[in-house]
TrEMBL record:
It comes from Cryptosporangium arvum DSM 44712. Residues 249-269 are annotated as: Disordered. InterPro entries: SAM-dependent_MTases_sf, SAM_dep_MeTrfase_SAV2177_type. This is S-adenosyl methyltransferase. It holds the Pfam family Methyltransf_19. Gene3D superfamilies: Vaccinia Virus protein VP39.
Length: 269
């Protein structure tokens, strides 16, 4: 059901990342400003809708890897987004119903939909924290109420850090979250990049995104890799989200220039 006009505390005057992403994924929880911005960016970069969907497929494969192969039973997901089936807890609890998940986002529309994220199994736990990734101390304090920081945790930061510029301390905030995790924990992170797109297309996308609430900051491979400093990348290392363990995904894999999002998973030694 379209939400237009039903949630007065939500700012509908500019595009918001959570709602525009929901539009690209084919959801209904978005407003005119989100759709206009989403269409304008997709007109400049036709791979956008495929990229958004591939990012979501990465989430499924990465969380399944973390739960089934790495044996994790606890997850801290920052920048959760509007509920989209399957949600992270559904993937993790499909492997083990006792998995515990803390979701974090700073957008009021995600908070408004949080109940749909709190539908886990009887054996597991899911909780929601309304917080900003630029406030890691608060996120960690709240997460400690649900997760045991003496046991490995999967920290997932999927398609969020490109909304945080260097001037806001993007790498420092991620490092602070990773520092708090015990050895054997993992970081999974995906991020927009201009590395595969002609510079004039990158510039046009930035122009069309400039008025949105959080304009995207593309990062190159070296800047992306810095999020994983001190961690051990698992195979296949840093690739576009569509290429990460692509053999476990059905269907044709889109080209890197279509996807334009880096993805990687790494273990904390
Ligand atoms: C593109 S969506 C990605 C959703 C989901 N992680 C996924 O990959 O499918 C980005 C999410 O990050 C959230 N976000 C952006 N900046 C944030 C910040 N500074 N703190 C917390 N959440 C933020 C947005 O509200 C949005 O829900």
């Amino acid at each position: 059901m379209p939400l237009d006009g039903k949630l007065p505390d939500i700012d509908t005057s500019v595009a918001h990342p959570a709602r525009r992403y929901n539009y690209w994924l084919g959801g209904k929880d978005n407003f005119a400003a989100d759709r206009e911005s989403g269409d304008a960016i997709a007109a400049a970069f036709p791979g956008m809708v495929i990229a958004a969907r591939e990012n979501r497929k990465f989430l499924r494969r990465a969380v399944r890897f973390l739960a089934a192969d790495a044996g994790l039973r606890q997850f801290l997901d920052v920048g959760t987004g509007i509920p989209t089936t399957p949600n992270l807890h559904e993937v993790a609890q499909d492997v083990d119903p006792s998995a515990r998940v803390v979701y974090v986002d700073n957008d009021p529309i995600v908070l408004a939909h949080a109940n749909a994220l709190l539908t886990g199994t009887d054996q597991g736990v899911t909780t929601y924290v309304d917080a900003d990734v630029r406030d890691p101390a608060r996120i960690l304090a709240e997460a400690r109420e649900t997760l045991d920081f003496d046991r490995p945790i999967g920290l997932t930061l999927l398609a969020i850090m490109h909304f945080v510029p260097d001037a806001d301390g993007a790498h420092t905030h991620v490092a602070e979250l990773v520092d708090a995790l015990p050895p054997g924990s993992y970081l999974a992170l995906t991020h927009a990049t201009g590395d595969f797109i002609p510079p004039e297309v990158v510039a046009e996308m930035a122009k069309r995104d400039a008025r949105s609430k959080s304009p995207v900051v593309d990062r190159d491979r070296a800047a992306f890799a810095r999020f994983f400093d001190g961690l051990e990348l698992v195979e296949p290392g840093i690739v576009t989200v569509a290429r990460w363990r692509e053999d476990t995904e059905d269907g044709d894999r889109p080209a890197d220039e279509t996807v334009s999002l880096y993805g990687a998973v790494a273990r904390k030694p």
